[in-house]
Amino acid sequence: MRISDLRLYPIAIADPPLRSSYGLHAPYALRTIVVVRSTDGIEGVSETYGGDGPLAALESLRDRVVGTDPFQLTRLWLELSAQAEPDRAEAHGDRTQTWLLPGENPLDRHARSFAAIEMACLDLIGKALGKPVCDLLGGRVRSAVPFAAYLFYKHAGGGGEGMDSREDEYGEVLDARAIVREARQMRAQYGFREIKLKGGVFDPDQEIAAIRALREEFGPSVPLRIDPNCAWSVETSVRVGLALREELDGGGYLEDPTATLEAMAEVRRRLLVAGVATPLASNVAVTCFEHVAEAHRLDAVQIVLSDPHYWGGIRHVQHLSYLCHALGMGVSMHSNSHLGISLMAMAHAAAASPYLTYACDTHYPWQHAADEVVLGGRVPIVNGEVHIPERPGLGIELDYDQVARGVERYRKLPYRKRDDEAEMQKRVDPSWRRVLPRW
Ligand code: GKR
Ligand code: MG
Fold it and tell me: Would you state the pLDDT for residue 83?
């Protein structure tokens, strides 16, 4: 079996005005749908970052991918990794997500492109053999993958623009009371049993109050995590860690409170001295295998946030889970605005990764059924879990009419790149800049 065709569909999907330390989400998030077709007419699909950059990176692989045996991808990984070397200068050697949004760092371009091809090939192989992806990788350790409620502060609006606006399910969410309301609503709809709050938006005392209000509402059986995406200094991170010592205990974590591994290590040291063992998690300072060793050496990070989209695919997430286990580190999963194909890729990666024991993040509740490209509509999340269906590959098929609508939305958009800072200036505060640390 060979790959006879590679098709790339750049799409735009409605996205509500969510806030983070990066700024504000634009009315549409960008994604790329990837289809590999085999010589025997089977199609494998995947979903990855969107916009011109990721699209051009994938387009440049067309000649290399077409003609390849989908079972033989290791050489492609090696070739792409070797080509990534010159990108070091372009990115000033910084492969973290401190300054560049996920999907934008040239230093993980090869890992992102490879991942998109790998996921589509696994889907293709699964469909050819009649096996679910997780069962191609040694078998699943779980058939239902838990995800966490991912709470955001947000402005009014459900995403999209003008006649193409989506309804605003959650309304404006700018204080602790509204955060609790959002959590209640999301839990009622999806049954999530763990909660993450995207922080780094308001004064840390307001975000401490929001976490406390969540604890008060849901009790200690619902683990809580907070992620300010490096908005805090070491001092502030320690202060928040001390203040939330009880609330983040029992399965919760403090995610990327501050920038750099050295600063995270300092936060960890100071919390331990004060008797607080809340683990620190990271998807900003740790984005690749090379970072894990240093994070472990410094004891800067105790939970690594995997993500098949930029760690080099589903198999790399599986490898990462073994590595973290051997090092005595935990592993969880990061997410970005995405549709059902990504959700299924994340679910299969988690199902096949024995030591991934935290509920995975997902932005899926923030996306709307009108934008879904999976045939039959939205992938169900029930009791906070995604079930691995007994269907081959990722377990989904593409709805090409929906893909065409997504491509049309993309075509009409004036932007081709996620830029939360520009969006924040445009819609909230013209003088807003991303400053780290802000507090
Ligand atoms: O969607 O604004 C967002 C998040 O801030 C996202 O871009 C982050 O990468 O969810 C992510 C995280 O955990 O850092
Ligand atoms: Mg994070």
Answer: 87
Which pairing describes strands 43-49 and 28-38: parallel, antiparallel, or unpaired? antiparallel
Question: Of 62, 67, 74, which Cα lies nearest the Cα of 6?
Answer: 62
| Residue type, position 366, single letter | W
Residue 432 identity (one-letter amino acid):
W
pLDDT in tens, 102-145: 888 999 999 999 999 999 999 999 999 999 999 999 999 999 99
Read off the amino acid at residue 132.
P
Three-state DSSP at 154 gives strand
Active site residue 426: no
- In this model, does residue 68 exceed pLDDT 70? yes
- In the reported structure, the alpha carbon of residue 229 is separated from the centroid of ligand 2 by a whole-number distance in angstroms of 6
* The two three-digit tokens of residue 325, written as one number: 């286990």
* Ligand at shortest distance from the CA of 103: 1
- Domains assigned to the chain: 3-131+402-411 (3.30.390.10), 135-394 (3.20.20.120)
CA distance 402 to 394: 18
Confirm whether 198 is a catalytic residue.
yes
Nearest to 56 by CA among 419, 406, 416, 421: 416
Residue 86: predicted pLDDT: 65
Considering only CA atoms, give the Rg of the chain. 20
Distance (Å) of CA 142 to CA 124, 237, 361: 22, 35, 17
> Which H or E run contains 144?
strand 144-146
Mind listing the pLDDT tens digit for each residue in 406-436?
999 999 999 999 999 999 999 999 999 999 9
Distance 129 CA to ligand 1 centre (A): 35
- Write out the two tokens for 47: 């979903």
Among 201, 301, 335, residue to substitute to test ligand 1 (most atoms within 8 Å of Cβ): 335
pLDDT tens for 143-171 read: 999 999 999 999 999 999 999 999 999 99
The model's pTM is 0.97
